[in-house]
Structures are given as structure tokens and as C-alpha cells.
Design brief:
By secondary structure, the chain is α+β, with helices and mostly antiparallel strands. The protein has a single domain, classed as Trna Endonuclease, Chain: A, domain 1 (3-Layer(aba) Sandwich). Helices cover 17% and strands 28% of the residues. It starts with 8 loop residues before the first strand and ends in a 37-residue tail after the last strand.
């Protein structure tokens, strides 16, 4: 995928690789949540290959839940064909975090600068099934090739969703 390179941006003393990531950090601040940008790299040996993953954010909400978030542009390809090429490999790399932090929640944030976001989430613990939690775009998230076959629950997840009455979107 030939995506345009992000514009480096400084927000509250942190240098971000893109304005989109800095914008997301601002949104997290409006929620009153603690965050770290690119907190640490995770690595694992998978099928004889050494794989690394560096999450964009580590977020701690008011209930002390830890979520690792990867931020991508709102139009990042997630359709069925594009998903096989871009989405599924990213989701698989994100799961490396569970080797070190099995209770963490993972989130892929599809964000439009200054205008909100959709989140694809995977819960921690025994459920570990990716769920799409935005009603505006239909998406099949029974992910072939990742060992998941369960239907998507029709309840909305709460990971990285705005608090009621919070400033911002």
C-alpha cells in the first residue's frame, strides 16, 4: 500500500510521526485518559520467524483498563480484498502484545483528522475476537486465516469510546 507519509507533529512535547496521531492524543486528553506514545516494541517468534510490533499508543482509561491502539487514516483499506493484504497482517502483528500483556485490549483506530473515528477492537481474556463497533460501515469480521469463525456480537464495545459529557467528538 502506497500511503502518503505522515507529517511529523509535536503535541504537548511529544514528537508524533503524523498529525493524525497527534490529533488522536488530543482526543485522549479530552477523555481524561492517560496515554504513552510508542511505549515499547514487542517481539515474538511465530512459525520460525522473528516478528516485532510497535504500538502507536498505550492508553489507560478511568477504570484502569489498558488498551494498545494503532491509529490509521479513516480511509485505510479494510474491505475484503484489501483486508487480506493489509488489515489481517496488522491485526496478527498487534496480537504479539499478548505474549507480554495478556490482559491488554487491542484497538485499531480508523481516524479522520479532527472529525472522530471508528474502532475495530479485540477484547482481552478468553474472547479475543475482533469486533467492529461502528454502525456507519458494514464489515465482515469473521477473519479467515486467523482461526476465527464466531459471528460478530451485535452489542457495542466500550473500548476507546468517548465518555458521556466529554469534550470533543
Amino acid at each position: 500500500m502506497n500511503a502518503p507519509k505522515g507529517r511529523e507533529t509535536i503535541y504537548k512535547g511529544t514528537r508524533f510521526k503524523s498529525r493524525l496521531e497527534a490529533d488522536f492524543a488530543g482526543w485522549l486528553d479530552k477523555q481524561g485518559w492517560q496515554w504513552e506514545y510508542e511505549p515499547r516494541a514487542y517481539a515474538a517468534d511465530i512459525l520460525g520467524e522473528h516478528v516485532q510490533y510497535l504500538p502507536d499508543f498505550r492508553v489507560v482509561d478511568e477504570a484502569n483498563r489498558v488498551t494498545f491502539a494503532e491509529v490509521k487514516p479513516h480511509d485505510w483499506p479494510i474491505g475484503e480484498d484489501e483486508g487480506r493484504a493489509h488489515l489481517y497482517p496488522l491485526l496478527a502483528r498487534m496480537q504479539i502484545i499478548w505474549e507480554a500483556e495478556p490482559e491488554a485490549e487491542l484497538a485499531l483506530v480508523l481516524r479522520k483528522w479532527g472529525a472522530g473515528h471508528r474502532v475495530i477492537v479485540q477484547a482481552a481474556g478468553d474472547t479475543r475476537v475482533w469486533r467492529y463497533i461502528s454502525a456507519d460501515v458494514p464489515l465482515k469480521l469473521v477473519l479467515p486465516g486467523m482461526g476465527q469463525w464466531a459471528a460478530i456480537a451485535d452489542r457495542r464495545a466500550t473500548v476507546l469510546q468517548p465518555k458521556a459529557g466529554a469534550v470533543g467528538e
